[in-house]
Input
Amino acid sequence: MADRDKNGKFIKGHQVSTGNKGGRPPRAREEQYNKIMMTACTFEDWEAIVATAVQQAKQGDQRAREWLCDYLVGKAPQTVALHHSMADETRQFMRELVGLSGDDEEEAEANG
Output
Protein backbone atom coordinates (compact mmCIF):
# COMPACT_ATOMS: atom_id res chain seq x y z
CA MET A 1 0.00 0.00 0.00
CA ALA A 2 3.05 2.28 -0.08
CA ASP A 3 2.14 3.12 -3.68
CA ARG A 4 -1.15 4.68 -2.57
CA ASP A 5 -2.16 7.85 -0.77
CA LYS A 6 -4.29 8.00 2.41
CA ASN A 7 -7.48 7.67 0.30
CA GLY A 8 -6.24 4.52 -1.41
CA LYS A 9 -5.56 6.15 -4.77
CA PHE A 10 -2.32 5.43 -6.62
CA ILE A 11 0.28 8.16 -6.09
CA LYS A 12 1.76 10.04 -9.02
CA GLY A 13 4.57 8.17 -10.72
CA HIS A 14 3.27 4.77 -9.70
CA GLN A 15 3.66 2.26 -12.51
CA VAL A 16 -0.08 1.54 -12.71
CA SER A 17 -1.11 5.19 -12.56
CA THR A 18 0.75 6.06 -15.76
CA GLY A 19 -1.60 3.86 -17.81
CA ASN A 20 -0.92 2.27 -21.13
CA LYS A 21 -0.45 5.32 -23.31
CA GLY A 22 0.24 3.52 -26.58
CA GLY A 23 -2.06 0.56 -26.07
CA ARG A 24 -1.01 -2.97 -26.77
CA PRO A 25 1.47 -2.97 -29.63
CA PRO A 26 0.35 -5.04 -32.63
CA ARG A 27 1.69 -8.54 -32.80
CA ALA A 28 3.84 -9.56 -35.76
CA ARG A 29 1.06 -11.79 -37.07
CA GLU A 30 -1.46 -8.91 -36.99
CA GLU A 31 0.98 -6.69 -38.82
CA GLN A 32 1.38 -9.34 -41.51
CA TYR A 33 -2.38 -9.66 -41.98
CA ASN A 34 -2.78 -5.89 -42.15
CA LYS A 35 0.01 -5.61 -44.70
CA ILE A 36 -1.58 -8.29 -46.88
CA MET A 37 -5.00 -6.64 -46.60
CA MET A 38 -3.64 -3.18 -47.45
CA THR A 39 -1.82 -4.61 -50.47
CA ALA A 40 -4.87 -6.51 -51.71
CA CYS A 41 -7.38 -3.70 -51.13
CA THR A 42 -6.13 -0.34 -52.33
CA PHE A 43 -7.76 2.97 -51.48
CA GLU A 44 -9.31 2.96 -54.94
CA ASP A 45 -10.75 -0.52 -54.30
CA TRP A 46 -12.17 0.64 -50.98
CA GLU A 47 -13.66 3.71 -52.64
CA ALA A 48 -15.42 1.47 -55.17
CA ILE A 49 -16.69 -0.83 -52.41
CA VAL A 50 -18.14 2.11 -50.48
CA ALA A 51 -19.68 3.62 -53.62
CA THR A 52 -21.34 0.28 -54.40
CA ALA A 53 -22.67 0.02 -50.84
CA VAL A 54 -24.09 3.55 -51.08
CA GLN A 55 -25.87 2.70 -54.35
CA GLN A 56 -27.24 -0.53 -52.91
CA ALA A 57 -28.40 1.28 -49.75
CA LYS A 58 -30.20 3.88 -51.87
CA GLN A 59 -31.95 1.05 -53.74
CA GLY A 60 -33.23 -0.37 -50.45
CA ASP A 61 -30.62 -2.99 -49.62
CA GLN A 62 -30.95 -3.45 -45.84
CA ARG A 63 -27.51 -5.02 -45.39
CA ALA A 64 -25.82 -2.19 -47.27
CA ARG A 65 -27.60 0.37 -45.05
CA GLU A 66 -26.59 -1.49 -41.90
CA TRP A 67 -22.97 -1.81 -43.05
CA LEU A 68 -22.74 1.90 -43.88
CA CYS A 69 -24.40 2.90 -40.61
CA ASP A 70 -22.02 0.72 -38.62
CA TYR A 71 -19.06 2.49 -40.21
CA LEU A 72 -20.47 6.02 -40.25
CA VAL A 73 -22.44 6.16 -36.99
CA GLY A 74 -21.11 3.19 -35.06
CA LYS A 75 -22.83 0.03 -33.97
CA ALA A 76 -25.85 0.44 -31.73
CA PRO A 77 -25.41 -0.78 -28.17
CA GLN A 78 -26.73 -4.28 -27.62
CA THR A 79 -30.18 -4.45 -26.05
CA VAL A 80 -32.38 -7.24 -24.78
CA ALA A 81 -36.00 -7.38 -25.87
CA LEU A 82 -38.28 -9.36 -23.58
CA HIS A 83 -41.27 -11.08 -25.11
CA HIS A 84 -44.51 -10.45 -23.21
CA SER A 85 -44.72 -14.17 -22.38
CA MET A 86 -41.59 -13.73 -20.26
CA ALA A 87 -43.03 -10.84 -18.25
CA ASP A 88 -44.30 -12.95 -15.35
CA GLU A 89 -41.03 -14.86 -15.04
CA THR A 90 -39.06 -11.62 -15.20
CA ARG A 91 -41.30 -9.97 -12.60
CA GLN A 92 -40.86 -12.95 -10.26
CA PHE A 93 -37.09 -12.92 -10.76
CA MET A 94 -36.95 -9.19 -9.96
CA ARG A 95 -39.04 -9.73 -6.82
CA GLU A 96 -36.65 -12.42 -5.64
CA LEU A 97 -33.68 -10.26 -6.53
CA VAL A 98 -34.79 -7.37 -4.34
CA GLY A 99 -36.46 -9.53 -1.71
CA LEU A 100 -40.10 -8.52 -2.32
CA SER A 101 -43.12 -10.76 -2.07
CA GLY A 102 -46.04 -10.31 -4.45
CA ASP A 103 -47.96 -8.50 -1.67
CA ASP A 104 -45.13 -6.01 -1.18
CA GLU A 105 -45.19 -5.12 -4.88
CA GLU A 106 -48.96 -4.59 -4.93
CA GLU A 107 -48.67 -2.39 -1.84
CA ALA A 108 -45.86 -0.39 -3.42
CA GLU A 109 -47.93 0.12 -6.58
CA ALA A 110 -50.96 1.21 -4.52
CA ASN A 111 -48.88 3.77 -2.60
CA GLY A 112 -47.41 5.17 -5.81
Remarks:
- The chain has a mean pLDDT of 79.
- Residues 26-72 form one domain.
